[in-house]
Amino acid sequence: MIKHALRLLSIPVILALGSCCKGGSGGNATLNIAVFHHSKPIPGATVYIKYNATEFPGTDVSAYSDHKQAAGNSNTLTFTGLHCGDYYLYGVGFDSSLVLPVTGGIHFQIKYSDRNHTESTNVPVTE
To answer: Using an 8 Å Cβ cutoff, are 47 and 120 in contact?
Structure first.
């Protein structure tokens, strides 16, 4: 009887521990990102990622956890090995048609990382 009660009590604890998502590296999720300025792709843009963030951390890129740059004429890049959780994505690039630097960011939440999981989002930037 006591063993059965202990087994039942352990189920909510396991569920509670398993449902906590804290963004960061070391998971199985992949995040594909494309950077756009008013629907125009921004090749060579850099995206900074802040783990466990829902709000804009600011323009000081040293406050971010990691970064990636789109290669060549591409406006896309990928972060791999992420846990489920909250992330803030801050994009920095150059719109050659306007000859202006462009920046901007968004909050993104990864909901699953218990298996190989891929999500995609766009990071809008503006002058």
So the answer is: no
CA distance 127 to 113: 34
CB atoms within 10 A of CB 67: 14
Per-residue model confidence (pLDDT) at position 3: 54
Please state, in angstroms and rounded to a whole number, the distance separating the CA atoms of residues 53 and 64: 10
E runs forming strands in 2-112 = 25-37, 40-41, 46-51, 66-69, 76-82, 85-95, 100-110
Q: Which residues contact 93 (CB under 8 A, 6 or more apart)?
A: 35, 37, 42, 43, 44, 45, 46, 75, 101, 102, 103, 125
The alpha carbon of 67 is separated from its chain's Cα centroid by a whole number of angstroms, namely 10
pLDDT in tens, 88-117: 999 999 999 999 999 999 999 998 766 788
Beta strands 76-82; 25-37: pairing state: antiparallel
Q: How far apart are CA 24 and CA 11, in angstroms?
A: 26
Instruction: Answer yes or no: pTM beyond 0.70.
Output: yes
| Contact (CB, 8 A) for 24 and 82 | yes
